[in-house]
Predict the structure.
Amino acid sequence: MNFALSAIIIAILLTPGSTALRAYYTSWRRPANELPLSTTELLFKGFIYSFAIHTVALLVINLFWSNIRIDVLYNVIMGKDIKLRPKQFTNFLIEFFLYHAILIVITYVAVKGLKRFIRSRDIDLSYPFLSPDNYWGFLFSGRYLQAPGVQGDIEDADIIIVDLLTNKDIIYTGILVDYQYDAPNNTVANFVLQDAFKRTFIKAENDEDTSRTTGSPQPVKGDIMVIPMSEIVNINIGYLKLFDPPQTDEPE
Amino acid sequence: MNVRISERGRRLLNNKELGSQLVHKIIEKRDQLSSGQTIDVDGQWSVKLTTAIKEKPKK
């Protein structure tokens, strides 16, 4: 019983750190860009963050409010006798859970704010360990173009075109409109292409068109084409800038 | 949507025929595109390659 209670208390103590990691590495708006983090990783990686957050919170509380009964918490975790009346112990538990509920909310909001600040200043592009996106999300969101040393800018990428060479020596080329992210394996599960064309990787012997090195492109019927990553051996990604005819109804 | 598509790109995607024309032109004129030239798509729209990268899936 004591062991179970200690385990629960320790798990709760680690939640602010895991909340901080979740707030930083998950996104409601762009779930496919998230970095994969298991619950175990969240707890263990969040240990240091939890320690720092608790230290700051306890300092603030001790400074402005009252002393925290750390001795009671220590005794509960170590399975020692607690010299408290039932009502005092109930009050202690209420304070403990209230403290954590408030701390989790503050941590979540503060880390989301920090993430927004880091992204708005592109700090994560110079310091990749701060990047809240997985690699594929980084590529396909166009943020790759804002990284130092990369030619172009995100404003120069209106659409992304991909060439997908499959294990059957067929190249599918199309406009990338979506993809499914396989978080456990940190890879793409499927590519979703619009206006796809397919052609053979090896040019037919009787093909006399000298302008091509591959087979003749044939449009793929249907609006959308989904290609699983398991069939792909090579990927070319092109960021394209479009120049459209002047719009009379929409000022540029 | 998780993929970069600008407002201009969305307008192009809404035109099924234009999207198809664009992809076909890109395949046919890949060399010119790769050398930084702007390619005409339909007499009105044109396209230029900003940058390109190659990737291999993890197996």
